Amino acid sequence: MQNSKILITGGAGAIGLNLIERLLGLGVDSILVLDNLSSGYENYLPEDDRIIFHNSDIGDIESFRDTMEKFAPHYVFHLAAHFANQNSVDHPFKDVQANIIGTMNLLEICKKNKNLKKFVYTSSSCVYGNSAIMREDDYIYPHETPYAINKYTAELYVKYYASMYAVPTVSIRVFNTYGPYEPHGQYRNVIPNFIVRAMKGEPLFITGDGTETRDFTFVGNTAQLLTLAALSNVADGDIFNGGTGKATRIIDLAEMILKYTGSSSEIIFKERRNWDAVKDRLSNIDKSRKILGYEPEVPLQEGLKITVDWYMNDYNYE
User: What is the model's pTM?
Assistant: First the structure.
């Protein structure tokens, strides 16, 4: 990617910020970050002259069309989304606008970009619903939340633009990414909320009985896979899993976080949310290993220690 021009939508979010750090180390020419700052933080962007920030909403194509057309990126990483299942249940029309219309807006511009080498779409493991085995070639019918429906629909459009307009695309289904730069709060993931509550000495709430499992993936591993996908020969909208292939019980996660933060916070169990029918979520990453050469660099315990250290030393949680 040396001397390449990169576009990252949602680049001020946790995945985007970690991806930017990786790409800068690869010697890219410039990185255009599109973000409406609904869940990202401009102040976390590295101080580097190669970074260009543009405050825009992907659901509104006129807010960034001229900027993106003039920039003409070689690689597009589409990370921006109306994030989180509960958020989509509460605001379904906003979810459609960002996750479907926003994706189509980008693809419409990309189909005219002669410089484009790859469009990398960041999808979600939520599209699998309650599938027992989460493999890319399994039949799925996501309907549990608007977020799952719309992320899957966007995958289909990514595939469509590859077949109809020869836009070189690839999709990555991300599994429960965590790491530095991710804020806590409503609609946010379990790990930042657990860490901040533990640091404050507040109870850690588990919705369910704690035996539920997830494939927690350090954000550096996700950035690694996104980069591999961009540099691969895959250009037909094919789909790859972005987890670790290892399951962790929520109760074990909570206990690790209490240990690493030195907290004595209580663990309290609550009723599972009415839309959350998924007890276990585990990726099969055989295809990503074989075709993209993906092997997660950072295991869970190491990733959690790095993440806890960031929250304790660099994050203002007040």
Answer: 0.94
